[in-house]
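Whiteboard transcription, Tuesday session. T.W. wrote the structure tokens on the left side:
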């Protein structure tokens, strides 16, 4: 099996070690004998995203979001084609915000989103930001489990009908709703940096599995060879305890 990944704007959208997600993906595929090829795509580069099994877009500050938005909007039809052909999409923070209706940044400037989904993001009052460690109870195609991460965003995302999880500790999409991220079976968006995959190997595996189903539709999550995650799970439980989430 081969997993083909396109890492979008790898050179500017990499806050708080989001690239660690790609490193974990590589290691967990190799340990299972799955070939993995990670291609990158910078502003202005020609790329057909529908040719990939997974598209990843990490987080970035307002400045980077402004830098890339014209390029991203120009790719809207191609991203739609990718989604329609079951390319899985994984988005973190600044990337997640740009798939919604719009983002009003810390200077009150509006960045139009791709408008694939109904959610929208506006900066918090008086520049207040959601910062710190976070624990959520997530639900991925019926699989419920706890996940941990780190968040740092001023943007308050609202109108999310299908969240990634329930917030147990921390903030999530905004200060009030107690829900985190977005998941609709094809696109996973989250505020969890940290990065997400090293802290939550089950989510890394879920993304590998979902992405592979584009080419191997009969594959089941349980078909992925189990790996030894005892160290990762120990670290995760430690963090959950410190957050009083278990
Ligand atoms: N600029 C956005 C915000 O502050 C996203 C930041 C991020 O990706 N961490 O909300």
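and on the right, the sequence the group agreed on:
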């Amino acid at each position: 099996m081969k997993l083909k990944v396109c890492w979008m704007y790898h050179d500017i959208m990499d806050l708080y070690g989001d690239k660690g997600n790609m490193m974990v993906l590589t290691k967990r595929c190799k340990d299972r004998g799955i070939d993995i090829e990670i291609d990158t795509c910078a502003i202005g580069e020609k790329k057909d995203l529908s040719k990939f099994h997974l598209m990843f877009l990490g987080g970035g500050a307002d400045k980077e979001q402004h830098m890339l938005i014209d390029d991203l909007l120009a790719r809207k039809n191609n991203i739609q084609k990718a989604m329609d052909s079951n390319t899985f999409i994984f988005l973190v923070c600044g990337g997640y915000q740009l798939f919604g209706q719009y983002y009003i940044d810390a200077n009150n400037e509006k960045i139009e989103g791709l408008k694939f989904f109904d959610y929208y993001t506006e900066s918090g009052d008086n520049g207040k930001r959601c910062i710190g460690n976070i624990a959520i109870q997530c639900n991925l195609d019926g699989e419920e489990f706890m996940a941990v991460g780190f968040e740092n965003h001023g943007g308050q995302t609202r109108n999310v009908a299908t969240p990634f999880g329930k917030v147990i500790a921390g903030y999530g999409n905004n200060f009030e709703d107690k829900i985190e991220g977005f998941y609709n079976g094809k696109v996973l968006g989250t505020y969890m940096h940290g990065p997400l995959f090293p802290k939550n190997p089950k989510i890394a595996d879920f993304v590998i599995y979902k992405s592979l189903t584009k080419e191997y539709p009969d594959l089941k999550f349980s078909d992925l060879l189990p790996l030894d995650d005892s160290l990762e799970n120990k670290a995760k439980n430690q963090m959950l305890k410190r957050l009083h989430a278990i």
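Someone added at the bottom: Residues 15, 59-62, 65, 93-94, 152-155 surround glutamine (CB under 6 Å).
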